[in-house]
Write a structure and sequence with these properties.
Number of helices: 1
Order of helices and strands: H
InterPro entries: ZPR (IPR039312)
Number of strands: 0
Organism: Citrus clementina
Largest sheet: none
Helix content: over 70%
Radius of gyration: 31 Å
Protein name: Protein LITTLE ZIPPER 4
Distance between the termini: 105 Å
Strand content: under 5%
């Protein structure tokens, strides 16, 4: 019985060590994911602001060229 208890105790210790390793790995992966998500959000927000700026410029250049064209007729 003592031998079985010792084996079970050692198995539990091993499982606890493995759980701690996995927990640290999960925390590391979570930090990496958070950093990548933040980077992606920044890139997307920059992309949106650029596309909005370009579309604003396209609209203003189109309307100014239209007014120039109407002055020619």
């Amino acid at each position: 019985m003592d031998k079985l208890n010792t084996q079970l105790y050692l198995q539990n210790c091993y499982i606890i060590q493995e759980n701690e390793k996995l927990r640290r790995k999960a925390q590391q992966l979570n930090q990496e994911n958070q950093a990548l998500l933040s980077e992606l959000k920044q890139k997307l927000s920059k992309g949106y602001s650029k596309s909005n700026h370009n579309s604003d410029r396209n609209v203003s250049s189109t309307s100014s060229s239209n007014s120039m064209d109407s002055g020619k007729t």
